[in-house]
Amino acid sequence: MSATKGIVASGHPETSAAGRALLDAGGNAFDAALGALCAATVCEPLLTSLAGGGYLMARPAGGEPILFDFFVQTPGRPRPEAELDFHPILADFGAASQEFHVGLGAAAVPGVAAGLFDVHEALGSLPLDVVVGPAVALARQGVETTAYQAWISDILRPILALSPETLALVTDEPGATAPAPAGQRVRRPDLADTLEALVREGRDWFYQGEPARQLLADCADRGGQLSADDLAAYRVLRRVPLHTAGFGAEFWFNPPPSPGGSLVAFALALLEPLRAGPDGSAGNRTVQNLAVVSAMDAANRLRARSPDRLFDGGGAQDLLAESQLEAWRALARPQDLFSRGTTHLSVADEHGNLAAITTSNGEGCGYVIPGTGVMVNNMLGEEDLNPGGFHRWTPGTRLASMMCPTLARLPNGDEIALGTGGSNRIRSAVLQVLLKLCAQRLPLEAAIDAPRLHLEGERLSVEGGFDASVVSALRSHWPDLHEWPERNLFFGGVNAVTRGPDGRFHGVGDPRRGGAVA
Fold first, then answer.
1. Where are the alpha helices (DSSP H) in 176-209?
2. Tens digit of pLDDT for each residue in 31-50?
3. Residue 445 backbone zone (phi > 0: left; psi -120 to 50: alpha; other: beta)
4. How many domains does the chain fold into?
5. Which residues does the annotation mark as catalytic?
6. Residue 317 resides in a domain
7. Is 464 found in the same domain as 436?
8. What's the whole-model pTM score?
9. What's the farthest any 2 CA atoms get from each other in the chain?
10. d(CA 238, CA 284)
11. Does residue 276 sit in the same domain as residue 195?
12. Which residues constitute the domain of residue 208?
């Protein structure tokens, strides 16, 4: 979709419409991003929450990009494992399944509510009650369940079955035993009350008032690890983005201590020799896709071998030095490929502001703070966020996330804000869309629609849509290849907006995750 005043791309039509309403009301891109975030907690309750975490990559008009880190924090004191409410569930994606751990023992200190206030104070232009207003209206009037949200509910039924309060996030039918089907309207009056109270009472109400007291009491009684000190001490952090260049473009990524942006930057830099134009022959497509998988493999091995370098800004920059990149290219598999030949929303406005905001609740821990309509995150139960094993985190620190809200200046002069959900698939989705835009110079729709690859260990997942010759070549190098029959949310959902040198806007919402533009 194109526009001339501003644009919002997100994971739900009503989320995007909430952002558009705030642009119509005279708000800037950051008002729209925060309002859309609040709407997402209503419309996408299994993907994001006030008790989750996230990041905002912001570029104020005429200024430098800045990263607002309101991701989750580890508790200050771990509880003995034997006392924890911490257990596995299996989410069935159809062609694959994934294990997650839930229960109050999987909950980390939430950051989204704090991020709402901090970003609004720094960059907002409208009163906070106006910013939150569209989300409150949606929660009271109800939101029609989309086919995608019904699908997510079906995938996460094991979590929804943990309590009536959890099921009530996705259905308001009295006596319901299953999530609402597509087309059915769901009202969230408790969440509407919570959003209004948050505006009226302020940030401390969520972290030290009644919601906090109820959460802490239940953590103490039911195997959680959060304390009053954890909630009171939480702060939003501001960071300088990781800035790199390549393919005739500039990029601003989520910086350390989160490794996602560093790994995308590293993989892009490895692939810089592939300055070929758009895919031409089948042979060229094969070489390019094999190179992309080799870059993913190198990034995976880098994360396993040198994790400390990904948590330090200086170490991340060192990895991008040409001598380091050449050494990694020499180790690439196969050897000759480098010869020189989890919901996200994005907003741009007419003033030149850009916002890319990625948030997550994990899958939710299965516990809803009574009377609030807010499910708490399960980030301590996410294997991707705990690569060294569960219960081994350092107390009182930010968890390192693969989330990668990204800004870029493309070779044609367009400025873009983009990102995706998708757990460990975030970096592979962002990498491939940027390559399509910058190396192959594809239009935004084609770059987002193109089938994707994801490498996890030795398992190569191949989304439906690749030529048979490409799949065959990939299988010869990666025998543990899993071919998906069609496009799937497993491969992320990249929602992106661009602002061209002529001031016109363009946006695409990824259909894999019900994306929509307003």
1. 189-201, 203-208
2. 999 999 999 999 999 999 99
3. alpha
4. 2
5. 342
6. yes
7. yes
8. 0.92
9. 64
10. 42
11. no
12. 5-238+360-385
